[in-house]
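FAQ: What does the model actually see?

It sees only this:
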Amino acid sequence: MIRAANDLRSNDPSQTFVDLEPTVPYELTPDGNLYPAYIRGEAYLRVHNPTAAAAEFQKIVDHKDIVTNFVTGALAHLQIGRAYAMSGDIAKAKGAYEEFLALWKNADPDVPILTQAKAEYEKLQ
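And it is asked to produce this:
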């Protein structure tokens, strides 16, 4: 996961997919971790594959029992919104952004990811 995250930061999303391949069988196990799916979803956004990105982030949303209170659970809603916006499905994008904003309604309003999400949401209007 660390190598994959570094690849993504180094703008090498194709290597990210290679590095995360061994994690797939373990992601949905009781002791699993869906952080690799989150990184994979980000990589799919980087290569402009919003359908695959949305599927990875949806995996996180659908498995709250694995994600529990890890921050990627909430951020997955934002990333799904971004994927839908990239694909041109504005209605679904708005819905995903609204879910994210509802989850973060009590957050500090100056948190950068929240201010960025609000700005992106306003552009969808």
